[in-house]
């Protein structure tokens, strides 16, 4: 049986944060947001998913006439990214060259519109996406990823991710023990939290395997409750830190590990890091963009 290595933290960080940051001759903020705030609709139903490496959600879906495709659900990516192979099979017109950050560099990307995209009961037509070569996922997963889908698709209705049952439920969401206000920032879900009682802004990111914080210096991280195993210098690699406390609404997490990394786009990322639900032991998490609420249970 073929063995598939786990994501190295730097690989994960550069791929999953970078995919949300389109860069070409224009900055990400210069690329038009076709649907920055998805229109909410009455949708109900479920979609089962496979969970790889304890956090990577892969669900089956379709794009146009192509069925049984593999979609990586990542709330930290916007807009959706479709594999260039799929775009070629559909003979989609592509324009406006750009690039996405992958590993230490960039990979070419283009923009296009999909005729339709479906996941369970969700269906969207004329969806604005980016196309790029996603074959690098085959190095770490036993399946090919045909598209990366975020809140631009999922956020058209409230939904619950049930990690224990391996199912996403769309429509009305159940009351979960902890709820916090949620807001959209350029298509990404951001919320307020506290690290050792100091305020931070975090991105809700189902595509991250760890809590990732952006660092500027060791002294600044010490002020917000991150203890380093070794000194963080300007030329150092990403470091593992231990949080004394992380507070999300009424819930406090103690002694959680975090990856402390450099902010790849300090002028464009208006948040302090990424929150992985699975890294915090969260078993169910719901998102309701219309009400502006993120809720969860352990």
**The level-1 CATH class of the largest domain:** Mainly Beta
CATH architecture of the largest domain: Beta Barrel
Spans where pLDDT lies below 50 across 5 or more residues: 1-37, 227-236
Structural class: mainly beta
Helix content: under 10%
| Termini Cα gap | 33 Å
Mean pLDDT: 79
Within CATH, the superfamily of the largest domain carries the name Acid Proteases
Describe it for me?
The chain is globular and about 50 Å long. The protein has helices at residues 9-18, 84-89, 151-154, 218-223, and strands spanning 45-52, 56-63, 66-73, 81-83, 95-102, 105-119, 122-132, 147-149, 159-162, 167-170, 178-181, 183-185, 188-195, 198-204, 211-215, 226-228, 239-248, 251-262, 273-275, 284-288, 293-297. 9% of the residues lie in helices and 46% in strands. By secondary structure, it is mainly beta. The chain starts with 8 loop residues before the first helix and ends with a strand.
Question: What order do the helices and strands come in, and which of them pair?
Answer:
Blueprint (H helix, E strand, L loop, with lengths): L8 H10 L26 E8 L3 E8 L2 E8 L7 E3 H6 L5 E8 L2 E15 L2 E11 L14 E3 L1 H4 L4 E4 L4 E4 L7 E4 L1 E3 L2 E8 L2 E7 L6 E5 L2 H6 L2 E3 L10 E10 L2 E12 L10 E3 L8 E5 L4 E5 L1
Parallel strand pairs: 3-8, 4-7, 14-19, 15-18
Antiparallel strand pairs: 1-2, 1-10, 2-3, 2-6, 4-8, 5-6, 6-7, 9-10, 9-20, 11-21, 12-13, 13-14, 13-17, 15-19, 16-17, 17-18, 20-21
